[in-house]
Amino acid sequence: MKKRIIVTTSVGLVLVLLFLNAPKDEAKTVNEYDEESLQIGNQHLRQEEIAVKERPDELLEKFVLREEIELKLWDEGEEVEEIQTLLNKFGYSIEENGVFGLQMKEAVEDFQTNLSLDATGSIDYATYKKLVITESSNLADDYIVSLQNKRTMQETFIPIPTLIQTPELPNGCEITSLTTILNYYGYDVSKTVMSDHYLPKKPFTYKDGKRFGTNPHEYYAGEPRSQHGGWYSFAPPIVEAGNMYLEEQGSTMRTIDITGSSKEDIIYYVNEGFPIVIWTTLDLSPPRMNSHWYLQDSGQYYEAQTNLHVVVLNGFTDDKVHVMNPLIGQVTYDAEAFFRVYEQMGQHAIIVN
Predict the structure, then answer these.
(1) DSSP states of 148-206 as a string?
(2) Strands 201-202, 205-207: pairing kind
(3) Is the pLDDT of residue 12 over 60?
């Protein structure tokens, strides 16, 4: 049964100390706590109770509200953002976007190791308490050096299979690229099955001489099997297709939308062994917006890209990226040109984890 403590201002300090530090079955005295300290490398952080003394009622309320906290990889929300802010007081340089990504998991593991906690990479009550009451420091210095190396292009090759989209899917580069990664992880599924049975898509309609189509952020526009009636989608419909398939297989893996990832983030994922579905253009030229349709749900004019293409990034060599291009197979491109177009296209990307 959970305990609830009502604290008055006069006795708040003592009760907070007991609440924070005492095991469930026994309590220590305040004097015993005064003798405790944490040593991290060559640093000595102040005793935990010093932080508590500064704001006992505030901390007590915070801890009571977080007794059941449990956050893990790919969770999202305000609680995740709070943890990101807490990590950053130690210099972890985590983007405070409310998404529990891979770099955040590594940072949590590093923090837990330094504080002699179980290095699970997830947030439990013990980790949360340490994040709150431990004094700000440069705890993350060694981690940041390691992270910078991982965010720099290294000789890397992930041996994903080659899967060509044609002739069955002349406009199915997105779902073919996803299928390649699913095959790499051992799932025996074809590009056509993924396109026909899992990809959310909507056909075009015509009225009064106008073409009406879907929002490519919500559905694939048209039909990937059609040479002239298939266009494209961005990440969300492909993520939905991947997750529908994985859930049917009873898999614990997920398709993750990492759209918005910087060049350095993308390099990090590949160096960590993750092939990435990347939105680019057919010839790495700037995006061309010389077609259009009207959105079916609102009638809004939609300017469409005509040279969009999707590939799988699976390695680096020297100043080049290694790519599985579903039109031509395994190729290399100039890394600077590749990442320039990736950014121009809006930084759309997907991993499976």
Answers:
(1) HHHTS--SEE--PPP---TTT-TT-HHHHHHHHHHHHTT----HHHIIIII--EE--EE
(2) unpaired
(3) no
Residue 339 half-sphere exposure, CB side, CA atoms within 13 Å?
A: 16
pTM above 0.90, yes or no: no
Backbone phi, then psi, for 294, in 5-degree steps?
-110, 135
Alpha-carbon 221 to chain mean position: 26
Q: What's domain 156-352's superfamily in CATH? A: Cysteine proteinases (3.90.70.10)
The β-bridge partners of 43 are 40
Judge contact between 146 and 304, C-beta under 8 A.
no
Q: What's residue 1's pLDDT?
A: 41
CA–CA separation, 287 and 304 (whole Å): 10
Q: Which CATH number fits domain 65-152: 3.40.50.2000, 1.10.101.10, 1.20.1510.10, 1.10.10.10?
A: 1.10.101.10
Phi, psi of 174 (to 5 degrees): -65, -55
3-state secondary structure of 312: strand
Q: Which of 230, 241, 245 is nearest to 167 (CA)?
A: 230
> 73: buried, middle or exposed (CB in 10 Å: 19+, 13-18, 0-12)?
middle
Identify the pLDDT of residue 177. Answer: 99
List Cβ neighbours of 144 (8 Å cut-off, separation of 6 or more).
Answer: 91, 92, 93
| Domain ranges across the chain | 65-152, 156-352
Q: How far is Cα 318 from Cα 191, in angstroms, rounded to an integer?
A: 32
Dig out the tokens for 87 from the structure: 């990590």
Residue 295 has pLDDT above 80, yes or no: yes
Q: Residue 316 half-sphere exposure, CB side, CA atoms within 13 Å? A: 25
Which pair of tokens denotes residue 183? 């095959």
Quickly state the pLDDT bin for 247 (edges 50, 70, 90).
very high
Could you give the 3-state DSSP secondary structure of residue 286?
A: coil
- Say if CB 237 and CB 261 are below 8 A apart: no
